[in-house]
Amino acid sequence: MTKTIKEMELKNKKVIIRCDFNVPIENGKISDDTRIKASLETIRYVLNKDGKIILLSHLGRIKQKQDLKENTLEPVAERLSSLLKKKVEFINETRGEKVESAVNKMKAKDIILLQNTRYEDLEGKKESSNDSELAKYWAQLGDVFINDAFGTCHRSHASNVGIASFIPSAIGFLIEKELNTLKELKCSKKPFILILGGKKVSDKIGVIENLITKVDYLLIGGGMAFTFLKAEGYQVGNSIVDNESINFCKKMLKKYEKKIVLPVDIKVNNEYSNEGKIVTRDITEIKENEMGLDIGPNTIKVFKTFLEKAETVLWNGPLGVYEFPNFKLATDEILNYLVKNKIKTIIGGGDTASTAGNLKDQIYHISTGGGATLEYLEGKELPGIQAIK
After folding, report:
1. What digits encode the pLDDT tens for the residues 365-380?
2. Catalytic residue among 200, 250, 281, 344
3. Residue-number span of the structural domain to which 339 is assigned
4. Is 35 a catalytic residue?
5. Considering its fold, how many domains does the chain have in total?
6. What is the value of pTM for the model shown?
7. Cβ(217)–Cβ(306) under 8 Å?
8. More confident residue, 189 or 338
9. Which residue in the list 223, 237, 292, 350 is annotated as catalytic?
10. Residues 143 and 205 in one domain
11. pLDDT tens digits along 236-250
């Protein structure tokens, strides 16, 4: 069993909470604070227990010096202060005298947020490589460690696995909810349908192999549909194809032909763009110079006939190039259909989560971790959870 925050003594303790504040920020403004809001339950619980809170998180990737300014957590501290109606002190350092001084001055219910943990990746990737010295430094700042960043649980970093190696640790409410929801899939109500989109089949091979025997149907859209269609012998023009996965697709189609549902028509363009010569083609009519960027209206109808009797739906990956308005229709329409018909839907994080928009509150569960969700569904152990076990 994994120890949870409810089993920890927190009163007057310095509690390090690893959150996932990896939110989209444009010109210093946060455009989607879903992940920040998802952390509030754990933070408020520690506040109510009179703990002293030290928050850690990554934001984006740090490869060169110019990435530092673009990936500062200062806007997160401001948004968090607003949501909690309480000051969150931002420390513009990951370690050093300023950090230590702020921690030493803390009183019960104080909150500080350290700078982006990946600032430590600029020289030697100390965060991402789980540098022992860095992990030990962060660990000595606190008495207790709570991992509540599900989105990084599939990674062994200094700020999750590393810290958990040195001080008493547990998972927070966000991770507990994620794990309980994913465990539900093992005994999901039937019919149980898996929808997969996204670009590459290779990214989802493990998920397909692990879940194909458990689901009643697998509906395939997005760029990965063209690899399956090519494996079936169709001409897919300039559409994205994961050639290394062709043989895998052939094997799956042969073994599970009654379970796998592929598109019957495709919205194509003559260029990878929102503009251009956009038409809908039957899958037998795609021309050499055309690329598929969304599933077509007849495919949407086909998918709905399978979904109308579904009791449980697990969905990962958009059905088209969602960032182009002309190719987001299928994803939006299927999502609206699931919500309107009150079908229990679990969205597996990543790009699919960002498509939910104002429907978020009407969906049973939206995971905060795309990669972590996929690896969990593949049956892999997640290092961030394993370290606490």
Report:
1. 888 887 888 888 888 8
2. 200
3. 188-377
4. yes
5. 2
6. 0.87
7. yes
8. 338
9. 350
10. no
11. 999 999 999 999 999
